[in-house]
Design goal:
The structure holds 2 protein chains of 2 kinds.
Chain A lengths: L5 H19 L2 H29 L2 E4 L10 E4 L1 H28 L5 H20 L3 H20 L5 H31 L4 H8 L6 H17 L9 H7 L2 H26 L2 H7 L3 H20 L4 H21 L3 H32 L10 H4 L1 H15 L5 H15 L3 H26 L15 H19 L2 H16 L4
Chain B lengths: L1 H24 L3 H23 L20 H31 L4 H10 L1
The chains are: A mainly alpha, B mainly alpha.
């Protein structure tokens, strides 16, 4: 009975819990409650992933209305994996949150912060779960609106401008998405993904569907920060509260990438999207350009949060190259990197949160000698940094391995070379931080700094440890990713 | 008849582009929000238009052969209107905070203040 309703419960529970956080008022109580909810959600996502891996696709009809009339939640290996990732990050980041949030936000706003956080979690889980394209839009807006609010709650006034910029670009992206969905609805009269995939087949070459395709590509690419549509991202990540940056960097763009592959592999189908309209010829160059431009910009940043934000854009580039390869290996690389990058980038941003708590800054020049004062935090940063570069035994290596393999399978060796060259730039920007942290004497702000509290170190090291664990024993992540890739390559149309 | 039938779509296209242009070209934050609302509203009209059938009435079945307009787009747009209102409200709230923090809502001035700080 309970198990049967898992797909909807993991969305309903945080949704219903969010207003309770407002009523709890005191910041400790609302945090404890949000934490409880997020771990319940995580437990449910684990159960769900386990069931999907054992039994195959789960179909859940909302209110028992059968699809295509009712909304259908359709969970296969791909979204179960994404849901698991979002729930994992949501739970671990909340465990880390209290010290950081209480120090960065005024006391009266903390309960509202946790409310928005739970709503954002709801939206992201919903986007990954639903099998209805309009329902997806609603969840997209739930997660976007709350993330604008979360970003705006940053301590610096520049957070407001970043949030406003994101609001404008995010809304334009979401509206493009609605236009695309509307045009598809015009041609097919359905909003259910499977039904849509089937009914689109005879009308694929009409001008309406072509226009819908274009709107959807641009709209979703805006949300996932594909170069050159990434302009909202660096400021939003740099000025948001540390906890929000860690959470959004690990989940928001990832869920959008899931939506992208669901649309263009699942609904439109590979034959149409990649063979007829050669979307790959558009994604691979933009992905590669993103890797190089964003990585090079990252090298010249003085604010490390901003540097990591640019690195996120570069990593999105890797994932989109994987999407553009149109093969099981390429998609496996994308899905595995989705998970791996979320884990490593979350650990890195959590380390930034520790620096901000102790030093009040994450400017490079303020971190002189920090490796001697906060060795545990800095070691986590190095662990994440090694993953970002793609050193063997870390998760970053697994992702790049599959990606290079995918490129070579297609015979695109220049792409493989460029992917490896991109990693070299990551060495440069990670090294800049390592050099300042370990090869300078502690001066100024760092002189009096002490190690971050255990309540922050443990969640951070959970993720930093995971970058090694899944780097050495990659059977779980790459196994699930491969199954997901096979599901995607098959498409949704029967 | 066909031109009249397409009239709504022309209105949608014009409104959409006007709204989009305001979002991109305007340097005033409030005007940007106005453009964004206009842009979203044009999509509402697009949806409502596609549900309309000429001669169709409200979807109340009064026996076989009743022609009625598709009610689903209306319902979808009710949701989208709520989303649009929420977006505008949040945007306005952020603008209020920006005005408090910077003392201006002109993007150029805010940018130069950020560059100097």
């Amino acid at each position: 009975m309970f198990l049967q309703h898992l797909p909807i419960l993991q969305i309903i529970v945080p949704l219903m819990a969010a207003p309770v956080c407002v009523l709890l008022r005191r910041r400790e109580r609302s945090w404890a409650f949000a934490l409880l909810v997020s771990w319940v959600v995580f437990a449910m996502s684990v159960l769900l992933l386990q069931r999907v891996l054992l039994e195959g696709t789960i179909i859940y009809s909302l209110g028992s209305w059968p699809a295509p009339w009712g909304i259908e939640y359709r969970i296969d290996a791909v979204n179960a994996f994404v849901v698991f990732l979002v729930a994992l990050i949501g739970a671990v980041v909340l465990l880390y949150a209290p010290r950081s949030v209480f120090s960065e936000l005024p006391e009266v706003r903390c309960n509202l912060f946790f409310t928005a956080y739970l709503l954002c979690l709801t939206g992201l889980m919903g986007m990954a779960t639903t099998g209805d394209v309009f329902n997806l839009f609603v969840f997209l807006e739930i997660s976007s609106l709350t993330s604008y609010a979360l970003i705006a709650s940053g301590p610096d006034r520049r957070a407001l401008r970043a949030s406003y910029q994101y609001l404008v670009m995010g809304t334009v992206g979401a509206t493009f998405y609605v236009i695309g969905v509307g045009l598809l609805y015009m041609m097919t009269g359905t909003l259910n993904m499977v039904d849509l995939a089937e009914r689109l087949q005879p009308v694929l070459m009409t001008r309406t569907v072509l226009a819908a395709f274009a709107f959807l590509v641009v709209g979703i690419s805006l949300k996932l920060a594909l170069f050159p549509l990434h302009l909202w991202l660096p400021n939003a990540y740099a000025y948001a509260p540390s906890v929000v940056t860690a959470f959004l960097a690990a989940t928001a763009t990832k869920v959008s990438i899931y939506v992208f592959v669901r649309f263009f592999y699942g609904i439109f189908g590979t034959a149409y999207a990649f063979d007829t309209l050669s979307l790959g010829g558009f994604l691979v160059p933009l992905g590669l350009a993103g890797i190089f431009v964003a990585s090079l910009v990252a090298v010249f940043q003085t604010n490390i949060k901003r540097m990591l934000a640019y690195s996120s854009i570069a990593q999105v580039g890797y994932m989109m190259v994987g999407v553009g390869l149109v093969s099981v290996s390429g998609l496996t690389a994308t899905l595995v990197h989705l998970f791996n990058h979320a884990v490593m980038k979350c650990a890195l941003f959590l380390a930034m949160g520790c620096f901000i708590l102790r030093l009040g800054s994450c400017e490079l020049e303020d971190l002189r000698g920090i490796g001697k004062r906060m060795p545990v935090t800095m070691a986590a940063f190095v662990a994440g940094g090694l993953s970002l570069i793609g050193v063997p035994l870390t998760v970053g290596f697994i992702s790049k391995w599959y990606l290079v393999l995918g490129a070579l399978e297609r015979g695109w060796w220049p792409v493989a070379v460029l992917i490896l060259l991109g990693s070299l730039i990551a060495v440069v920007y990670v090294w800049r931080v390592v050099e300042v942290a370990y090869f300078h004497e502690p001066t100024g702000k760092t002189a009096a700094a002490t190690e971050a509290p255990l309540s922050m170190l443990i969640p951070m090291w959970l993720l930093a440890g995971a970058t090694f664990y899944f780097g050495i024993s990659a059977t779980f992540t790459s196994g699930v990713a491969r199954r997901g890739a096979e599901v995607l390559m098959a498409g949704l149309a029967p | 008849m066909i031109t009249v039938g397409l009239l709504n779509y022309w209105v949608v296209v014009v409104l959409m582009m006007v709204g989009f242009y305001i979002v991109m070209a305007s340097r005033n934050l409030i005007k940007k929000m106005v453009g964004l609302s206009l842009f979203q509203t044009s999509v509402f009209i697009l949806y409502i238009t596609m549900g309309k059938i000429s001669g169709g009435t409200a979807p109340i079945l009064a026996g076989p052969g009743t022609t009625y307009s598709n009610p689903l787009p209306h319902v979808l747009i009710l949701t989208a209107i709520v989303v649009g209102v929420a977006t505008t409200a949040l945007g306005m709230a952020i603008i209020v905070r920006i005005k408090e923090a910077y003392g201006t809502i002109e993007e150029d001035e805010i940018r130069s203040m950020d560059a100097n700080s």
